[in-house]
């Protein structure tokens, strides 16, 4: 499932030809720091459906892996295949494709923010409302459990937030960066990105993030803050064939 990294692979790069943790970050997360979230069938791992849509195929998926994924998701389900550029098995149908980029910390001026507040389960209704209005990407009822989420409130209302999602060993993804349209242009997203990055750095880890390759304004912002392009990737979704066997039950990772 890995995508070949650029020669300048960024912090933590491996030797040429050796898969990097960030080439399959969901697999590295679900078999590492986020193993307690993982649901497993064979070599296929996924987050609970109310936590995150990310799932992980092995780097070299075979026929058994695709059958396990189909049984885990269910006939006719649409499944995300982030980073996958190989050939789908017969009967699978691509339903969504978006070119993306992965950027890594290369000199962020990370710093805490006095106005940022920690968000938790009690804040989820407001977080879901903000996400619905700004569409930064998937954020589900239990996504907040994946890591630290920070927000900025004005007159008691949540107007901006950012937080942590994927967590490969030594790395943490910054995600769900969004600002209420009425409060854009005030630098709130920048402040929250740097505050979340500060917390990641305090743990001795390196921030990274994903965005659409076509989101050039966001990419320019991230690069101005100190992120650097590590690789190009793809956000792909495919529909499971209707006639897949289901002879084994999915089980959580021990």
From TrEMBL:
CDD domains xrefs: NAT_SF (cd04301)
Keywords for this protein: Acyltransferase, Transferase
Superkingdom per UniProt: Bacteria
Any one Pfam family match given in the protein's UniProt record, by short name: FR47
Leader peptide range in chain numbering: none
Domain spans labelled N-acetyltransferase: 114-243
The protein's name: GNAT family N-acetyltransferase
PANTHER family registered for this protein in UniProt: ACETYLTRANSFERASE, N-ACETYLTRANSFERASE DOMAIN-CONTAINING PROTEIN
Database matches in InterPro entries: Acyl_CoA_acyltransferase, GCN5-like_dom, GNAT_dom, YpeA/RimI_acetyltransf
Provenance organism: Streptomyces achromogenes
PROSITE patterns tied to this protein: GNAT (PS51186)
């Amino acid at each position: 499932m890995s995508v070949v990294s650029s020669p300048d692979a960024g912090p933590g790069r491996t030797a040429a030809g050796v898969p990097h943790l960030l080439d399959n970050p969901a697999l590295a997360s679900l078999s590492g720091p986020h193993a307690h979230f993982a649901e497993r069938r064979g070599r296929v791992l996924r987050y609970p459906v109310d936590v995150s849509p990310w799932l992980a195929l092995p780097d070299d998926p075979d026929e058994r892996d695709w059958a396990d994924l189909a049984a885990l998701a269910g006939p006719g389900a649409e499944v995300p295949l982030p980073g996958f550029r190989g050939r789908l098995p017969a009967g699978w149908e691509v339903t969504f494709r978006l070119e993306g980029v992965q950027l890594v910390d290369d000199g962020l001026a990370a710093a805490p923010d006095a106005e940022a507040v920690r968000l938790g389960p009690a804040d989820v209704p407001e977080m879901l409302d903000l996400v619905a209005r700004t569409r930064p990407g998937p954020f589900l009822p239990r996504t907040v459990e994946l890591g630290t989420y920070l927000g900025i409130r004005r007159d008691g209302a949540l107007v901006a937030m950012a937080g942590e999602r994927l967590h490969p060993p030594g790395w943490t993804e910054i995600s769900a960066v969004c600002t209420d349209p009425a409060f854009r242009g005030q630098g709130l997203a920048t402040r929250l990105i740097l505050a979340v990055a500060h917390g990641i750095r305090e743990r001795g880890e390196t921030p990274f993030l994903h965005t659409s390759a076509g989101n050039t304004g966001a990419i320019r912002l991230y690069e101005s803050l100190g992120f650097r392009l590590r690789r190009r990737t793809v956000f792909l979704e495919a529909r499971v064939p209707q006639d897949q066997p289901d002879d084994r039950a999915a089980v959580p990772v021990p």
